[in-house]
Design a protein that fits this description.
- Helix 1 runs parallel beside helix 5 (103-114) and helix 1 runs parallel beside helix 9 (297-312).
- The protein has helices spanning 10-21, 46-54, 58-64, 88-94, 103-114, 161-165, 234-241, 247-255, 297-312, 318-347, 352-364, 368-379; strands at 2-6, 25-29, 41-44, 70-75, 81-86, 99-102, 119-120, 125-131, 134-139, 144-147, 149-152, 171-184, 194-200, 203-210, 214-222, 262-269, 276-277, 280-282.
- The protein is of the alpha/beta class and 384 residues long.
- It has a single domain (2-171, 268-380), classed as 3-Layer(bba) Sandwich (FAD/NAD(P)-binding domain).
Length: 384
């Protein structure tokens, strides 16, 4: 049996690892000539780390994961701590730590683990076809590849997705803009072993520690879509949006490298029940594009890969196996997309009264409620 994987991002490389685990030959094709991930870093929660362990890439998480042992919410305007607690009880209960990691380092390490020379870059898929004998992928350079099945992990702008679901879905603007990047850890901004989040006015400023003494930072601001802003004006834009906020926020803004900050208008896509058409399956953002508000985008792709590996174990019927994959994943990923959307609306002031109520709740929070919510999400994955 042979498979084709479209995409060499986190989803594509985890899919390739899933097939390798079952001894299935596959070829990986990536559209870009050089893999350049969008976004500075990613929070991989315990369920995602468990999946990476299962897929044989746990060492990558051990090496790249930052020491995120505690969590705190701080009032962005006056700098007062709203809640602060250790994540050790969560880690003990779910059996694995969370690992915030550099996105570029993670993707590069996954490709290197697979074998960079085995990934075919600059291969833009144009269309796919299938019949009783297998799947054929056609590329814009005239190339044609055949296999028994195809895994489309070609991202939120997936070319293969409309073939699978039967229509071209629209991306939904989530209502806020995210700036993100990396800075050297400065304890005047936040503790070096803590996920620290400043909140207020429906805005958010967050720092997570990653490897090599760096913070992954991000700023969220509810804004209309399509403003004439880019990284060149990031520092002045953020200084304006966060004028009057606490000194650590101002220190962070001053530390930003304008040439290395990302500005993203955040979108998701309405969940769809179909992830598979015959011998073709969607995986990762191609199958479930979510906002980053519960930190499960990458984790969901890793979960997909685990389930894909499990259904292919000793399976002689690829169509039945992929149908089982769809049955196990469709409900889970829909739940994650909608859960992230709900959290997004509360965090970013869609109804400010609800956001203010959340701020009040944070001031009474001991950590138990937040960790219980995290535990439910983590344990809903295929590895518990």
């Amino acid at each position: 049996m042979k498979g084709i994987v479209i995409g060499a991002g986190m989803g594509g490389m985890s899919a390739a690892a899933a097939l390798k685990k079952q001894g299935i030959e596959c070829d990986v094709f990536e559209a870009v000539k050089e893999n350049k991930p969008v976004g500075a870093a990613i929070s991989v929660w315990s369920n995602g780390v468990k999946c990476m362990n299962y897929l044989g890439m746990g060492e990558i998480m051990d090496r790249l994961g930052g020491p995120m042992h505690n969590m705190a919410y701080i009032d962005g305007l006056n700098g007062q701590v709203m809640t602060q607690f250790s994540l050790k009880p969560l880690v003990k209960e779910v059996g694995e730590r969370p690992c915030p990691v550099s996105r570029a380092d993670l993707q590069a390490s996954m490709i290197d683990w697979w074998g960079r020379d085995k990934v075919q870059f600059g291969k833009v898929v144009e269309r796919v076809e299938q019949d009783d004998a297998g799947v054929t992928a056609y590329f814009t350079d005239g190339g044609v590849e055949k296999a028994d099945f195809l895994i489309a992990a070609d991202g939120t702008h997936s070319v293969v997705r409309p073939y699978v679901i039967g229509y071209q879905p629209e991306r939904r603007y989530a209502g806020y803009v995210n700036w993100n990047g990396l800075v050297e850890i400065d304890t005047n901004i936040a503790s070096a072993d803590q996920w620290t989040t400043f909140v207020g006015e429906g805005k958010r400023v967050s720092m997570m520690p990653i490897a090599d003494n760096r913070f992954y930072y991000f700023f969220d601001v509810p804004l209309v879509k399509g403003l004439e802003e880019d990284r060149a004006s990031a520092k002045s834009d953020l200084a304006r949006y966060f004028s009057g906020w606490a000194e650590p926020v101002q220190t962070l803004i001053k530390a930003i490298d304008s040439d290395a900050v990302n500005r993203i208008e955040v979108h998701d896509i309405e969940p769809f029940p179909t992830l598979v058409k015959g011998r073709v399956a969607l995986l990762g953002d191609a199958g479930h594009s979510t906002t980053p508000d519960i930190g499960q985008g990458g984790c969901a792709a890793f979960e997909d890969a685990v389930v894909l590996s499990e259904v292919l174990q000793d399976s002689g019927d690829i169509i039945a196996a992929l149908k089982s994959y769809e049955a196990q994943r469709a409900g889970r990923v829909k739940d994650l997309v909608l859960k992230a959307r709900k959290r997004c609306d509360v965090t970013h002031g869609k109804e400010m009264s609800k956001t203010q109520s959340w701020y009040a709740e944070l001031k009474q929070e001991t950590g138990e409620h937040i960790m219980e919510g995290l535990k439910v999400t983590i344990q809903g994955g295929p590895l518990g």
